[in-house]
Write a structure and sequence with these properties.
The chain has about 230 residues and is mostly helical. It has one domain. It is about 70% helix and about 0% strand. The chain is globular and about 60 Å long.
Length: about 230
């Protein structure tokens, strides 16, 4: 998926590079905040006002962006934003509700990916072939792909990513909180694996699989059209 963008960087394909960079910037400032807003909204709905009180119930990207997480998206196509603070003591069912809050962010990315893949189908189907239609098509294509990457990355069961919060549903508190004590070191190891490329291949394979499934589903109505 994003291999086309990185190939463009290597070969000097300025047009594809510019479209890809525009899509990345769009994701950073327009869709990554939706991911964090989804966490905050879910937390507030489930009884915790902490995200609202901390100014995180907003779509303002400045409230959410992480410098390192943003750089990771630029370099590797996978990344994160600043975690939304949640006080589980305010939740009626702390383990279950916290898991739902954690899943809200990646779920929003998959929904946005479906919307962007839908827009690629609309562009391909209804716009006449031209340079402008190609630019629009690849912009939404890259934006959809990055959103899938974000969902897959954040669902990894590794602290402090969203997927790690699901361990709270199956592990006794004693072991769960022991793991969380080492999340800083685990995250450093994760960053090392990403920047060395050791984790990029399996993540890309999984992202491509999920993106292909979403593309197939949203493209079904267009294949039925005469």
């Amino acid at each position: 998926m994003l291999s086309q963008f990185y190939k463009a960087v290597q070969t000097g394909d300025f047009t594809t590079f510019l479209i890809g960079m525009s899509a990345i910037i769009f994701v950073l400032f327009c869709t990554l905040p939706v991911h964090e807003f989804a966490h905050a909204w879910a937390a507030v709905k489930l009884g915790d006002e902490t995200p609202k009180n901390q100014g995180r119930l907003t779509l303002n990207p400045l409230a959410h962006l992480s410098l390192l997480g943003s750089l990771m998206i630029l370099v590797a196509g996978f990344g994160y934003a600043k975690p939304v603070p949640v006080n589980t003591r305010n939740l009626k069912n702390p383990k279950k509700d916290f898991a739902l809050i954690s899943l809200a962010g990646p779920a929003s990315n998959l929904i946005m990916a479906a919307i962007f893949f839908l827009l690629t189908n609309i562009t391909f189907r209804f716009l006449s072939p031209s340079l402008l239609s190609q630019v629009i098509y690849y912009f939404f294509y890259f934006a959809a792909t990055i959103n899938v990457n974000l969902a897959v990355f954040n669902l990894l069961p590794i602290p402090p990513l969203d997927g790690s919060r699901l361990w709270g549903l199956v592990l006794p508190d004693k072991y769960y909180y022991t793991v969380l004590q080492y999340e800083r070191y685990i995250m450093l190891a994760l960053l090392f694996l990403l920047f060395t490329g050791a984790l990029t291949a399996p993540l890309s394979w999984l992202s491509n699989l999920i993106a292909s499934a979403i593309k197939f589903i949203v493209g079904l109505p267009f294949r039925l059209l005469p």
